[in-house]
UniProtKB/TrEMBL annotation:
Organism domain of life: Bacteria
Pfam families linked: PP2C_2
InterPro entries reported for this sequence: PPM-type-like_dom_sf, PPM-type_phosphatase-like_dom
Positions of the PPM-type phosphatase domain: 12-150
Protein's recorded name: PPM-type phosphatase domain-containing protein
């Protein structure tokens, strides 16, 4: 049965640092044992800067943190209750939209436009998540980012205009037609028993794929975080906020 070492990190992008912006990424992770072995969950959310004309109003890091915390808790709940792993993504997306809707219910909006602005400024983020069980490996995606499974690299780039789950909260005649948006996560499956290493990262790495060989084979538990700090604040390679999670199979 597979056992993986998990390392994660998050750093503010150099351009955001220079502009005095907050880090709009969020990442949450958990490794634990159930009766049949090791389980790993990672969730990354990359907040939007959609309101470029009013950057001081954008706090998408709020939605990013709420999103990763919620999806981590809910995924852990489903796995603990012995749900069949491959069907969990179907439930998670509906759960996430309902969670966003519950946030909106508790706000005091005077108009539909205020509601739209609240969503645009606070609840827009892409999602990239990893679930590894003793039998199944699942990667969930909504929006851009990078996925690596052994030597296969998959990149997703929407040129700063990715879809966000939060767009489904906005009425059809305002902003975007929800029928043009996916109603669920795109899921990539892999066999953890025949996989040696996996990484998921926010879209900052799409433009910095030369860093991929440096993701692996670190012994220090904080080395990924150390590397991100250097790549952003010293080398100025990561201009955008960056989050990264790396799983490597433990030696037999």
């Amino acid at each position: 049965m597979p056992n993986f070492d998990l390392k994660t990190g998050k750093v503010i992008g150099y351009d955001h640092l220079q502009a005095g912006k907050n880090c709009q990424d969020a990442i949450a992770s958990k490794q634990f044992e159930l009766g049949d072995g090791q389980y790993s969950i990672v969730v990354i959310a990359d907040g939007s800067s959609v309101a470029k004309s009013n950057p001081h109003l954008v706090h998408s890091e709020v939605g990013s943190q709420l999103t990763v915390d919620f999806l981590l808790r809910r995924t852990y709940q489903y796995l603990s209750e012995n749900y069949h792993a491959p069907i969990i993504p179907r439930f998670l997306f509906d759960d996430l939209i309902q969670y966003y809707q519950s946030i909106l219910v508790n706000q005091s909006f005077f108009s539909v436009q205020e509601k739209v602005e609240f969503v645009n400024f606070n609840l827009l983020c892409t999602v990239l998540a990893l679930i590894v069980t003793p039998k199944y490996g699942l990667i969930l995606r909504y929006g851009d980012g990078i996925i690596i499974i052994d030597n296969q690299v998959f990149t997703f780039d929407y040129e700063d205009m990715p879809p966000y789950p939060g767009y489904l909260l906005i009425p059809q005649h305002l902003k975007i037609n929800p029928s043009q948006l996916s109603q669920g996560f795109e899921v990539t499956e892999f066999d953890p028993n025949n996989t040696q290493k996996i990484a998921i990262g926010s879209d900052a790495f799409v433009a910095n794929q030369e860093l991929i060989p440096l993701f692996w084979n670190h012994h220090h538990p904080n080395q990924i975080q150390r590397n991100l700090n250097v790549w952003s604040k010293v080398d100025h390679k990561l201009l955008d906020d960056a989050s990264l999670a790396v799983l490597e199979k433990k030696g037999e």
